[in-house]
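Renewal narrative, Specific Aim 1. Our central claim is that a sequence can be written position by position from structural information alone. The example that follows is taken directly from our test logs and has not been curated for this report. It begins with the structure tokens describing the chain, in the order in which they were read.
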């Protein structure tokens, strides 16, 4: 674990990241810390990097005596701060409902005394929003820190969670963000990878063929593309971006954050608190259709470019000829019926 009871007798570590009363019980927080570690921190770091960080936290003084490969103590110390900040915010978020009540044999009651009154609903929502925002932003900060210092973390560099995809057409979240705003989120970028693979399989490969796709990718990874290849790759990138958004938007949202889909609206109370309301199905459908339209338009543009410059792409020409001059096309069939005869 990345927090210890012995280090939080008076919430010493916790109060580095959240302003809480020193009398708060670490035991009451423990289940939510453990849960948040499993759900968020371990998932982001991967099992091996999480283990290294946990071992460092348990005994930082003897870290230099451990065998290689390992990250330096100073670098792990920086990573630990980011991980703890995310972890404690997400632990409070997950445990907020239960931590705010007393539960006994006769039921559950709000914690309230003559000197301590419960929060208004808008105050609760503001507090939970703060925990959520700080927690997930810090998860992104973890990935950005590791990405910027990747050679200092050999264990993470070899993990599946490393967010620089060197063998992909879109290698990083900022590259994705050039064409569609995901707030430079590494978390969202990771989440969209499975949809990018679906876009490859169902929207790009049937149009240009596996051999030409692999030829372009090999040249791209090696940094040896020609100008005509670069033009096709830019089309592919835009197709991947817009069609993966169309496929994945239902699980991400319009204001894309890792933890939901929201619009900002002013509350009706005197606090002027800006609450975040879930996106309506109609708005979500509109955004998905717009992304779908853009992606399919780029497919058409790519085909036009390939046909206008066919002599530059012999591998594609062979695939195009194999399909008798009529490459496979796909029709968006959402909310419609299709009959095959």
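The sequence written for that structure reads:
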């Amino acid at each position: 674990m990345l927090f210890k009871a012995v280090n939080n007798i008076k919430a010493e570590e916790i109060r580095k990241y959240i302003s809480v009363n020193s009398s708060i019980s670490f035991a009451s927080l423990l289940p939510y810390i453990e849960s948040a570690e499993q759900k968020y921190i371990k998932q982001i770091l991967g099992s091996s990097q999480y283990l290294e960080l946990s071992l460092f936290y348990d005994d930082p003084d003897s870290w230099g005596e451990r065998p290689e490969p390992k990250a330096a103590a100073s670098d792990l110390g920086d990573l630990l701060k980011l991980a703890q900040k995310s972890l404690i915010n997400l632990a409070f978020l997950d445990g907020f409902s239960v931590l705010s009540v007393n539960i006994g044999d006769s039921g559950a009651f709000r914690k309230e005394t003559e000197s301590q009154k419960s929060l208004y609903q808008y105050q609760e929502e503001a507090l939970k929003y703060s925990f959520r925002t700080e927690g997930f932003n810090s998860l992104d900060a973890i990935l950005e820190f590791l990405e910027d210092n990747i050679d200092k973390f050999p264990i993470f560099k070899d993990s599946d969670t490393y967010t620089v995809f060197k063998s992909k057409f879109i290698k990083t979240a900022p590259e994705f963000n050039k064409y569609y705003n995901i707030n430079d989120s590494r978390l969202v970028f990771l989440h969209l990878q499975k949809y990018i693979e679906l876009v490859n399989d169902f929207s790009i490969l049937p149009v240009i063929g596996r051999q030409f796709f692999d030829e372009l990718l090999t040249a791209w990874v090696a940094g040896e593309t020609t100008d005509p290849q670069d033009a096709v790759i830019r089309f592919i990138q835009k197709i991947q971006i817009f069609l993966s958004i169309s496929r994945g938007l239902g699980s991400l949202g319009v204001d894309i954050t890792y933890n939901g889909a929201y619009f900002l609206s002013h509350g009706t109370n005197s606090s002027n608190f800006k609450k975040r309301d879930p996106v309506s199905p109609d708005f979500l459908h509109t955004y998905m259709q717009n992304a779908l339209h853009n992606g399919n338009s780029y497919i058409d543009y790519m085909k036009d470019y390939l046909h206008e410059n066919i002599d530059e792409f012999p591998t594609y020409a062979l695939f195009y000829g194999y399909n008798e001059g009529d490459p496979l096309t796909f029709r968006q069939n959402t909310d419609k019926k299709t009959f095959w005869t």
